[in-house]
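Have a close read of this protein, sequence plus structure tokens, and explain what the tokens say about the fold. Thanks in advance:
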Amino acid sequence: MTGTPHSLLTTAQIEATARAVHEGQRDKAGVPYAEHLRAVAEGVRARGGDEEQIAAAWLHDAVEDGKLSQEWLREAALTRRTRDIVLAVTKRSGEPPEAYAARILATPGALLVKEADLAHNADPARLAVLDEATRTRLSQKYTRMHTLLGLVAGDRPA
């Protein structure tokens, strides 16, 4: 991470913060939400992401889910790039998917984080435990976002 190393939160501290603020939260399949955050962070790492992107992966849903405020994000000892990525992947109420995708594409480093997020969200094993209507709705939503982001079919899980 860029900046003065002793003044920034470490990736381990960011992970601990994310796990703490999402404590008790479960995903649609009933799995502890921290498992999704871990999977996205690992997906970023596996795709060659750097420490700033991995940090953003741990925090990618914290503002959107109301677990951390934008003020916290602004004041936290994070790099500007990590903050920018988190804000880019944070959906805004009423925002059209096209605007959301455009913001991600315009923010350096954000596409890789969103790609890892989509890969985990669209994992067939993860979707398989959901009811058919939810599975279909989410699959369509994730496919549309892949298209808007210009991700090729090979980028998606089978």
Q: What stands out?
A: The radius of gyration is 15 Å. The mean pLDDT is 91.
